[in-house]
Structures are given as structure tokens and as C-alpha cells.
Design brief:
Length: about 230
């Protein structure tokens, strides 16, 4: 040891190591609460994020389904319109042949009608359209007329509207899960901030705010539908 340098040694009278300084009871309790909150928030955040992703995927599927129905409805609507236009043209030609008293040509035109239009045509004839002023204007106006393409197009449009509405609802549910995930992240932030305070009042108050926000968000998540 260099000369002139003194080292003061404090003897350990008891011969035992000094016990570590114990935390106050309030600090121990608040640390337990913080650990429990952190564990629950970690699980809840993962669950909420998972549900948000699932509902977002469901939204995409439903929107895709609605679009498929729309395409099919447009195709059927086009086919039905073409069929209806062809029947109307043949009916006009039948009127001309009938006015010319050409029964053979008129009968030929009747055979050219589609099956559904021919059924409506026969029902229209029974209303005595040439003498009855209250008769329908044409076969397409009678109740028996049915265009299967247009009927199917109507069904498909209804399905598309229903799928689109379900997709919109799924998007809203996904947004709610995202909101709750952000709130859970805020709880994590508050707990982390609380651990930085050494003053009992501030630390307890911050932890209680985090706990209250966690309970509120957990209740909100529990009320949301699950994918």
C-alpha cells in the first residue's frame, strides 16, 4: 500500500451481511398490481389485434362476395333485357302479321316467343285485348309474365346488398377492435410512466387511472362480436 494512503475499514461486528433495504408495503402492493395489469394488457392487446385482423379479412371476403353477386346480376340483367327486347320485337311483328290477316306468319311468330313470354301471350289473348279497353298493353304487362333472367338478377342484387351490409358491419367491428387495441397500448404507457415516479401519491394515482382504463377497454372488447 502506498505510503500516506489510509483506508478506513468498518468492521462487521456481527459477522453477517447487512440485509437489503426493504421496500415500503405500499410500493410492494402497487408493484404487484402493475405486474398483473401488464400481464393482462399484454394478453388483451394480442387478442384485440387478432380479432381486428380477422374482422378486416372477413370484411374483404364479404365485399368480394357482394361484387361477385353484382357481376352475376349484371350478366343476368343483360341477358334478360336482350330476351325481353327480342320477344317485344317478335310481338310487334305478330301484330303486323295479324293486322295483315296473315295467320300462318302470325303463328310462326308465336312459336318464336320464349316459353315464358308465350305463356304470358296466351294469358294476354284471353283478356280480349283488341276490344277490351282495360286489357294490358301487351304480354309483358300481364301477371303471368316472368323473365327468369330478370328474376334471378333481382335475387342476386338482394344477396349483393346483404353481403355488402355485412361487410360494412365487419369493417365497423374491426375499427372498434383497433380502437380498443390503441386503448390497451395507452394502459401500457400509463403503467410504464407510473413506474418512473417515486412519490407514492402520483404513482398510485397513475396506476389507478391505468387500471380504470384497462377495465373500461376490457368491457368494451367483451361486448364486441368474435370472428
Amino acid at each position: 500500500m502506498p505510503e500516506g494512503e489510509h483506508v478506513e475499514l468498518t468492521p462487521n461486528v456481527s459477522g453477517q451481511e447487512r440485509p437489503p433495504e426493504e421496500h415500503p408495503s405500499w410500493e410492494t402492493l402497487i408493484e404487484i398490481v402493475e405486474v398483473i395489469v401488464l400481464a393482462l394488457v399484454a394478453i388483451a392487446t394480442a387478442w384485440s389485434g387478432y380479432q381486428a385482423a380477422k374482422w378486416e379479412g372477413r370484411q374483404s371476403v364479404l365485399y368480394g362476395t357482394a361484387q361477385t353477386y353484382r357481376f352475376q346480376a349484371d350478366a343476368d340483367s343483360t341477358a334478360g333485357g336482350q330476351e325481353q327486347s327480342a320477344d317485344a320485337s317478335i310481338f310487334t311483328a305478330w301484330l303486323q302479321a295479324t293486322a295483315a290477316h296473315d295467320s300462318k306468319l302470325a303463328a310462326l311468330y308465336v312459336r318464336r316467343f320464349t316459353t315464358d313470354y308465350r305463356t304470358a301471350f296466351q294469358a294476354w289473348l284471353k283478356t280480349d285485348p283488341f276490344t277490351n279497353p282495360n286489357a294490358p298493353a301487351g304480354p309483358a304487362r300481364v301477371s303471368q309474365y316472368r323473365n327468369p333472367y330478370l328474376v334471378e338478377a333481382g335475387h342476386l342484387n338482394n344477396r349483393a346488398a346483404a353481403a355488402f351490409a355485412q361487410g360494412t358491419a365487419a369493417r365497423g367491428t374491426s375499427d372498434n377492435y383497433v380502437r380498443d387495441t390503441v386503448l390497451f397500448a395507452a394502459v401500457l404507457f400509463l403503467v410504464a410512466i407510473a413506474q418512473r415516479f417515486s412519490l407514492r401519491t402520483i404513482r398510485i394515482a397513475t396506476t389507478m387511472v391505468a387500471l380504470a382504463l384497462f377495465i373500461y377497454t376490457a368491457v368494451s372488447v367483451a361486448q364486441l362480436p368474435r370472428a
